[in-house]
């Protein structure tokens, strides 16, 4: 058999021996993005996990993403290089809080962002990601109340696009995206008057981006509210010029590879997710060598969450 000579060779060789597929989120460090079999946004990676015939899914991302893979592929072994890689957004609502909220709105349809724990997904009707949140909400009859959780900024974006009045929004947030604020965006846009703006809807500045467009401070066609996967699609259609990027800075690696002639600049260069960065090259190697950390979801919870997650991967294909 082949003798591995570098970290990358050993990672790929161990993956081959275990019939493992390595998935990496767009916010992972560049080395991990480059060694993964697939790099993408949370929706794309969920779809790949669901369709995969690998025996082992190694999820380089945060814990809820690996849990989602386990919910979709319960018969597979799901590993994450560090089970402590959490998510401040997923932590912003507990199953008990959701139970209480539902009891105040017993007829409402519950739409949960994929950034939630398996226990919250088990109390959910449909999950969504930032790529299909609008389509998911539009799939619900207009007269039904909707509980949208946990992200207030994504919720505000969905409300704006759908014009839906009966959408109740949980006031959670991701500490990284909430920290990318409107003043920073306005200053960066003023300093780069010809730049395009790619803004993730979880950002605190998503409303400001639309405000800038509404006031004519930035031409509306240059302001794009996009998921990380949507940013990559848009990057592939762009040549030359500057794009200001409002999201976690790991995204810049994929964008620069997708369109090398564009100058991609972070709106906030400090917007780094400490949870995403817990997945290091060393821990990925350890994960494959020692088969840890394994991600398990209690089968009853997984069964209750599965329909909601399956609807998510079917909507917006
Ligand atoms: P997407 O990749 O779905 O845009 O998600 C962003 C995110 O913050 C995941 O943690
Ligand atoms: Fe969670 Fe925010 Fe990190 Fe994404 S960037 S994993 S939403 S804490």
Automatic annotation (TrEMBL):
Subcellular location: Cytoplasm
Family in the record: Belongs to the quinolinate synthase family. Type 2 subfamily.
InterPro entries: NadA, NadA_sf, Quinolinate_synth_type2
Pathway, per record: Cofactor biosynthesis; NAD(+) biosynthesis; quinolinate from iminoaspartate: step 1/1
Name of the protein this chain belongs to: Quinolinate synthase
EC assignment: 2.5.1.72
Entry superkingdom: Bacteria
Function per UniProt: Catalyzes the condensation of iminoaspartate with dihydroxyacetone phosphate to form quinolinate.
Known catalytic reactions: iminosuccinate + dihydroxyacetone phosphate = quinolinate + phosphate + 2 H2O + H(+)
Listed cofactors: [4Fe-4S] cluster
Keywords: 4Fe-4S, Cytoplasm, Iron, Iron-sulfur, Metal-binding, Pyridine nucleotide biosynthesis, Transferase
Cofactor note: Binds 1 [4Fe-4S] cluster per subunit.
Organism: Fodinicola feengrottensis
Residues holding [4Fe-4S] cluster: 87, 174, 273
NCBIfam families attached to this UniProt entry: nadA (TIGR00550), PRK09375.1-2 (NF006878), PRK09375.1-4 (NF006879)
Binding residues annotated for iminosuccinate, in chain numbering: 25, 42, 113-115, 130, 200-202, 228
Main localization of the protein described in the UniProt heading: cytoplasm
Gene3D superfamilies found in the cross-reference section: NadA-like
């Amino acid at each position: 058999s082949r003798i591995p000579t570098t970290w990358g060779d050993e990672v790929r060789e161990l993956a081959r021996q275990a019939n493992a597929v390595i998935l990496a989120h767009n916010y992972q460090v560049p080395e991990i993005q480059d060694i993964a079999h697939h790099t993408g946004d949370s929706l794309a990676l969920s779809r790949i996990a669901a369709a995969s015939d690998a025996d082992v899914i190694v999820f380089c991302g945060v814990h809820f993403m690996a849990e989602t893979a386990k919910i979709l592929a319960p018969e597979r072994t799901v590993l994450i290089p560090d089970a402590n890689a959490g998510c401040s957004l997923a932590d912003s609502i507990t199953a008990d809080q959701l139970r209480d909220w539902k009891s105040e709105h017993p007829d409402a349809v519950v739409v949960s962002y994929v950034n939630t724990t398996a226990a919250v997904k088990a109390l959910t009707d449909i999950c969504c990601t930032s790529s299909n949140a609008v389509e998911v909400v539009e799939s619900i009859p207009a007269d039904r109340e909707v509980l949208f959780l946990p992200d207030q900024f994504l919720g505000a974006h969905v409300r704006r696009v759908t014009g839906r009045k009966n959408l109740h929004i949980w006031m959670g947030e991701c500490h990284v995206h909430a920290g990318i604020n409107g003043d920073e965006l306005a200053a960066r846009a003023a300093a780069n008057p010809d730049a395009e703006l790619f803004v993730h809807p979880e950002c605190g500045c998503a409303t400001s981006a639309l405000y800038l467009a509404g006031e004519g401070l930035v031409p509306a066609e240059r302001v794009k509210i996009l998921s990380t996967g949507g940013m990559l699609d848009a990057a592939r259609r762009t040549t030359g010029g500057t794009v200001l990027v409002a999201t976690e800075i790991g995204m810049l690696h994929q964008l620069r590879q997708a369109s090398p002639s564009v100058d991609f600049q972070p709106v906030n260069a400090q917007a780094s997710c400490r949870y995403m960065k817990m997945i290091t090259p060393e821990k990925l190697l350890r994960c494959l060598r020692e088969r840890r950390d394994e991600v398990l979801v209690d089968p009853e919870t997984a069964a209750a969450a599965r329909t909601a997650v399956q609807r998510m991967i079917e909507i917006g294909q």
